[in-house]
Amino acid sequence: MNVLITGVAGLVGANFAEYLLKEKQQLGINIVYGVDDLSGGYIENLHMDDPNFTFVKADLSNEDEQKSVEKIFMESKIDYIFHFAAYAAEGLSPFIRQYNYKSNVLPTVFLINMGIKYNIRRFVFTSSMATYGRNTTPFTEDMTPNPIDPYGIAKYACEMDLQVAYEQHGMEYCIILPHNIFGKYQNIWDPYRNVLGIWMYKALHNLPFTIYGDGEQTRAFSYIDDILPCLWNAAVSPEAKNERINLGGKIHITLNEAAKLVAEVTSTDSIVHLEPRHEVKHAWSSYEKSERLLG
User: Does the chain have fewer CB atoms within 10 Å around its N or its C terminus?
Assistant: First the structure.
C-alpha cells in the first residue's frame, strides 16, 4: 500500500515517515509520499535516499502547486492520507487571521477532495486541543468544541468538513488531537510554537526562559516516539473509523514546573514572567479512548 504524509519535514511528519519506512515490511507499505512546503520543517529531517520515499515540495494552499500533489494520486493508488501540515501558532493566530485560515483550511479541503476523488481508505487528520477552548479539564472527546482563537476555529472547521465528507461521499476519517508533542526533528527556531522548543532555543543562546502570566497554566507533554504506532492505528484500526481521539500525555503539570525541569537539564538559571496573553489557562486531555482504540 501507499501513504501520503503532509507536513512530512516537521516534527510529527518526519518522525512518522521514518517510523513507516523502518517498519514498512511489517506494515505492508510500498511507497511513502511526503509533501511539505519547508516553511517550518527541514529537508535534512527526511530520508531522501530511501527508495521507498518520494518527496514533493508544495504549498497546498496554492492551486498551482496542488497540481504536483494531485499527480501523485493520479499515478499511484494512495491508500491513506496523514494530514499533519499546519501553521500551529495558536497565540499568534488572532493577528494573522487570513494566513491562519489560508494555511490550515484550504490545504485540508484540497486533500479531502483528493481523498474523495481517488477513493482512499481513510483520512487521518491531526486536529488540535485548541478546538476545546474553554471547557473543563480533562478535555474529553464527547465535549462540544469551544475554541477561543482563529487557529482552533480553523481546525474545528476541518473536522466538520471531514464529517460531512463521510456523510456525503463515504470517505472514512480519524481525527487525532495531539497535544504538546516534543522530540527529534523539533523546530526550535519558531518563537511562536511549542514552548519546550522555545526554551531549548533560549538555553542554547544563553537567554532567559519566558513564561506568559503566572506560569500556573497546566499542560500535558508527550514524547514523539510514544504516539507513532498510534497514528498508524488511526488509519488501519476498524475501531478508529470516524472517531475523534485525544492523543497525548497522561500527566499534566504547570508551565512553572516544566520550565524548572528544562532549566535543570540545560543549566539555565533565569526565568522571566511576562504579561499574560489570551490563552486557555488549563488545557489537558483524557487519554482512555486512545488506549482503548489506538493501543
Answer: C
